Amino acid sequence: MSDPTHAGKPAAPQKTLRSRAWFDNPDNPDMTALYLERYLNFGLTREELQSGKPIIGIAQTGSDLSPCNRHHLVLAERIRDGIRAAGGIPMEFPVHPIQETGKRPTAALDRNLAYLGLVEVLYGYPLDGVVLTIGCDKTTPACLMAAATVNIPAIALSVGPMLNGWFRGERTGSGTIVWRARQMMAAGEIDYQGFVELVASSAPSTGYCNTMGTATTMNSLTEVLGMQLPGSAAIPAPYRERQQAAFETGKRIVEMVEQDIKPSDILTRDAFLNAIAVNSAIGGSTNAPIHLNAIARHVGVELSVDDWQTHGYEIPLLVNLQPAGEYLGEDYHHAGGVPAVVSQLISRGLIREDAMNVNGRTIGENCRDKPILDERVIRPFDSPLKEKAGFVVLRGNLFGSAIMKTSVISEEFRERYLSNPDDPDAFEGKVVVFDGPEDYHHRIDDPDLGVDAYTILVMRGTGPIGYPGGAEVVNMRPPAHLIKQGVHSLPCIGDGRQSGTSGSPSILNAAPEAAAGGGLALLKSGDRIRIDLKTGAADMLVPEEELQARRAALEADGGYRYPASQTPWQEIQRGMVEQLDEGMVLKPAVKYQRVAQTF
Ligand code: FES
Ligand code: MG
């Protein structure tokens, strides 16, 4: 068993490497010979495989189908150099591709599939440690979840964000520009050609989304969790420091195998609470609770959706990145990246400083003295962009829980919906309900819908079961006629997710979803609902007897209807997936913990 306190001290006495069971087992010459011979056929030597050098996997998430992570194909060369330099042997292998924007019906469907595949590889092959190549949204949690389950020494390497996007002298950020372009096209300011040109300007190089979307969020939080080298998360993909970080990561994983530092030594509850605090300070994605709760479930750490409000709500927004702010990934790196943000929180006692990093030191030791290098991009704790930037957890007869990112509530939104001096934290309105994104796209501009500036838009049928994987569709633009009148957003509520690149103050991740019998299934267009951000109450203003009658009628009708599965995996996952508040994990998977230790 490992002792986390030995980290950073001289290497513990060499323990038997896991890979020896394959490559050097004199008690079983038959199998040893069989395991060994095929790995020699491309030029590895017996001496290499039998000399006690750690075998290090490189879990490759980049491919032509995964452009956000494709630069890992290049970085892998420097990871290999680092592994070799430290005395290990690299073995690269592919991870099931997950491309956030390219995968239909949604990339989130594939997070658990990639997780399952990676667990099997890490468990079943002669690997002593692994480098997880992370980046695009779901690649990060898929890799960390698998490393948590198997629990062999693991270190993550971010591919890094793209360079800043520019259009006519202004920064254009991934995803965020799409919301803006949609409004401009709906208002007739640009046409189809102009739309595509504007959006494409935001992707000027290799790397992941340059906004504070789910990718930058999850890569930052992976550093805070301690699973990648300090200061490495924010380095843009094409920078030379990114390649240098790849080399250092390769070197470090070999030392981690020697010191037997495993994910369970790093992914402690303290580490997760640090990540929750930093998520507020960076203005992180509403997908973060789903993914972090999933990683916690797989490593066996208690973490609930309420922890996000308890430990995150009061933390101010310090990072001025789109969509909440102005800047982009390169600016974040130049301003000091994750260590500068952590250091600000440390100065207020908001970080559990003893949590360990893969480099063998604590987060306190790594970050305590790290300065902000550009205060326009990372604000000092005393002059934040917003106070109380965390998530609020809401509950009521609409759902068991849902979250809202209050830091992105705009002035326009506040004035229209939260301006009652007697009740400044609550709003109430009539709903229009959509069953899935197709229904929404089909009807939103229909004048008969009667959407006005005070309507609340509801999207249901978009949770892990209803829309397999959970769709990023809760933030809905208002009808074009309202946008022309200057109404840029309406309150949105739903059982799906929202892109981290969207600046909408939606109420999302509602659990249980309509397809799992949640209250949203009972809602009808024309009902009134009331949301109180202070008490966290979210209710349909429909009498209880009426709700009971609706539930009985729905059940008699066979329950809430959703489209049939189109692939085997959609059906398999639908049969065993947990709700968004529980991390959308596969129910049977979470009981398998630290499985490599059973060897
Ligand atoms: Fe891959 Fe944003 S789409 S990182
Ligand atoms: Mg996304």
UniProtKB/TrEMBL annotation:
Record region (Disordered): 1-24
Entry GO MF terms: dihydroxy-acid dehydratase activity; iron-sulfur cluster binding; metal ion binding
Domain Dihydroxy-acid/6-phosphogluconate dehydratase N-terminal: 53-366
PROSITE patterns: ILVD_EDD_1
SUPFAM superfamilies the record matches: IlvD/EDD N-terminal domain-like, LeuD/IlvD-like
Record's keyword terms, sorted: Iron, Iron-sulfur, Lyase, Metal-binding, Plasmid
Domain Dihydroxy-acid/6-phosphogluconate dehydratase C-terminal, chain residue ranges per copy: 377-583
Pfam short name (any one): ILV_EDD_C
EC number: 4.2.1.9
InterPro entries: Dihydro-acid_dehy_C, DiOHA_6PGluconate_deHydtase_CS, ILV_EDD_C, ILV_EDD_N, IlvD/EDD_N, Sugar_Degrad_Dehydratases
Similarity-based family: Belongs to the IlvD/Edd family.
The name this protein goes by in its record: Dihydroxy-acid dehydratase
